[in-house]
Amino acid sequence: MNIMIVGVGGQGTLLASRILGNAVINEGFDVKVSEVHGMSQRGGSVVTYVKYSDKVYSPIIGKGEADIILAFEMLEAYRAMPFLKKGGKMIANTQNINPMPVITGAAEYPKDIESKIAEKVDLFAIDALGMAAKAGNIKAVNVVLIGVLAKSTDISYENWIKVIKESVPEKFLDINLKAFEYGYKGE
């Protein structure tokens, strides 16, 4: 399984990849994780590749190779489309975050981006930001999306909960468990 996680700096993509990687390890798979940071400290793109199988030889996912793309933001989802394989699935947060060229007025955020993506790929768009707010903290978008992703894997529900408990600081655990549930149940 090849899963590509895309977002912008500060959205928690790295924690999401760590949760995914540990859940897969607990299921007995060989896992390779590779992170690409592009000015992530300033809201730039962050891409993580998570590959798992009985044996994985390379951590990189090339164009047309991703089984699932987990996108934390719509423009990043749009940029990642070439990496999704035919028949693959894209799970995307409906949030729009303006990149620096849009903020400075040098470019415009693409109009109707969600429908443009849906025309080309199997898109499951979800208001993860709203679900995270409902869970108690908008920063839990990453765990909402992990909950949505969990339904598309053969990893046990109990394993996901165990890994979240091991990965999230105690003071944020209740919020993140709620966030996972909202994503998992699609509420």
Q: CATH fold name, please?
A: Pyruvate-ferredoxin Oxidoreductase, domain 3
Distance between the termini: 26 Å
Compute the gyration radius: what is it? 16 Å
Secondary-structure-derived class? alpha/beta
Number of helices: 8
The order of strands across the largest sheet is: 2-3-1-4-5-6
Count of structural domains = 1
Q: What's the level 1 CATH class?
A: Alpha Beta
Describe the structure.
40% of the residues are buried. The protein has 8 helices and 6 strands, in the order E-H-E-E-E-H-E-H-H-E-H-H-H-H. It has helices at 13-26, 74-80, 100-103, 113-120, 128-135, 141-150, 157-167, 170-185; strands at 2-8, 30-37, 45-53, 66-71, 84-93, 122-126. It is globular. It has 187 residues and is α/β, with parallel strands linked by helices. The chain has a 6-stranded mixed sheet with strand order 2-3-1-4-5-6, sandwiched between helices. The model has no long low-confidence stretch (mean pLDDT 92). It has one domain (2-185): Pyruvate-ferredoxin Oxidoreductase, domain 3.
Topology:
Layout: E1 2-8, H1 13-26, E2 30-37, E3 45-53, E4 66-71, H2 74-80, E5 84-93, H3 100-103, H4 113-120, E6 122-126, H5 128-135, H6 141-150, H7 157-167, H8 170-185
Helix pairs in contact: 1-6, 1-7, 2-4, 5-6, 5-8, 6-8
